[in-house]
């Protein structure tokens, strides 16, 4: 009977130590984030993706986190898009007390390189980089697409807008 108790104790100890190592690994993963997004050419200058938009290979984006208290930059990281216009970057650390956003840096297409200078039209994507935000997926953050604009909208834009039932404030 004593040997069964010792055996049970040893098995329990091994199981508990395995669970503890899994819990530690998961806690470490909470401060590692995969950021995924895309960059497109806004051929209609409406600042959202349409069927006429083209995703850009070689576009540069920058992640910038700033202190909520004094606005100092606490993290900067850049990424470049692939053939599909997508980018990925990995960030470590909890940035709960910071405002983090992705911004456009450089377009590979000189004909599609405009970025709005108006503060209310600023093309940036805010992102939460903390495990304390209620987001179920602790590791992957998917960012809204960011777009560079052409200088003159395409002549096909009015037809594309009509297809989706909108009338933008843009004169063609």
TrEMBL record:
Record InterPro entries: Allergen_Ole_e_I_CS, Pollen_Ole_e1_allergen
Signal peptide segment: 1-27
Protein name: Pollen-specific protein-like At4g18596
Domain of life where this protein originates: Eukaryota
Keywords: Disulfide bond, Signal
Coiled-coil annotated residue ranges, if any: none
Family in the record: Belongs to the Ole e I family.
PROSITE patterns on file: OLEEI
